[in-house]
Amino acid sequence: EREAAALKYREAIQTDATVAGAYNNLAALALAEARLDRALEFSDAELARHPRSIQARLNRGLALLRLERFSEAAETAAPLALGPPWLPVAEVMAAANASRPEDAPAEGPDPILVAQARVIVGLARLGAGAPSDEAEAPLVGVVDEPLPTDAPGHRLQLTLVARRALAAAAVRSARWEIAAERLAALTSHDARLLLAMTQLRLT
Asked: If 0-12 CB within 10 Å is exposed, 13-18 middle and 19+ buried, where does residue 118 land?
């Protein structure tokens, strides 16, 4: 199925190398197959043709993050993360629409895409060894802010990744009570083991 999709996207590029989304779709396939260097190449190719492509920028950030090129990953995703200050996305959207006529359609960032960018920034900072408060700042809003219910899979995945990262930041900085509280909200086997180890630290 992926091979068929890749062939379709390559044919689209051969027909018109400037077609929007084709290189980005190849980047997404490469990420799914852990071909990270190729994902980065495809994302860069998309951005070279469509510099304002949000999804291509996010895919580029993900590829850099998984390649452990943390500073570049954070730099790539930061413009989409709407911070600092790390205001809730709902507040940012409300501010953007405050001066618009009441009957005008609302405009603003897609909360899911902003959450993805914030997760990339937070994980990149954590991977780079940034102070815990700097790594946690973009992640807290992803956990605390209600994300749209029309994308439950993305919402759940982003929330879980953010929770794991926040727990890891607390463990790294030896804030055991906070770590235990954050880990208790997770259900994975690894989280339960880490929670047990953290609770031992508290006894």
From this structure: buried
Give the number of other Cβ atoms within 10 Å of residue 7's Cβ: 10
Residues near 195 by Cβ (< 8 Å), separated by ≥ 6? 180, 183, 184, 186
The three-class DSSP label of residue 34 is coil
Are 163 and 148 spatial neighbours (Cβ–Cβ below 8 Å)?
no
Tokens of residue 33, six digits: 């197959």
pLDDT tens for 154-185 read 667 788 888 888 888 888 888 888 888 877 77
Amino acid at 118: R
Q: Is 114 exposed, middle or buried (0-12, 13-18, 19+ CB in 10 A)?
A: buried
